[in-house]
Amino acid sequence: MRSYIPYVVLSSALVQATTFRPQDAPPGTQLLNVVFNGNGCPTGGATSWSSTLNGTLSFLTPELKATSGRDIPRAERRKVCQANFSVAYPTGWQFGVKRVRWSGYADLASGVSAVATGFVYFSGETDDKIWVMNLDGELHKGYTAAYEPASASDVSWSACSGREAALNVKVESRFEKPSDNSLSSITIDEFDTQIQWRQC
């Protein structure tokens, strides 16, 4: 089942703190592997990422730019990039998403509408968190949006059994109402996922 989450547009880099306090990553925690997939992050492209298992998993997506307009192929109207982070951790601990933040630029002609979407879920789970930001033209500006769970019960946690979990972070930019008469584009340039730990 998918959970659709409202976003909060940020006027600064700060967001309101949650009512629970995450713990540091337990000893022995390791980031085993990171795999990228999608037409917004092609193999050998310029996509880069950084991480700290006590803080943020982030990646840059300079090729995640959806475009519509005259003579633009339909395939260019939707761009996707998914990162799969494989994390090993000890039994008795769980990790989950504390905050999601993404930013990009919208250059939309009048009458054109597009969406910037984020998905966060664990491999093998059916309940993924989805954040949707709707953008309507005429619009020519950068945007930043974020979501933060209000309590621990709102967080999707990894299994308590430990060993290994794969956290998938997927971002997508696409046109809901394109136009063949004018050139428009929407990007997602950066996506940050802040993680947190707890004992279970």
From TrEMBL:
<dbReference type="InterPro" id="IPR025649">
    <property type="entry name" value="DUF4360"/>
</dbReference>
<dbReference type="Pfam" id="PF14273">
    <property type="entry name" value="DUF4360"/>
</dbReference>
<protein>
    <recommendedName>
        <fullName>Secreted protein</fullName>
    </recommendedName>
</protein>
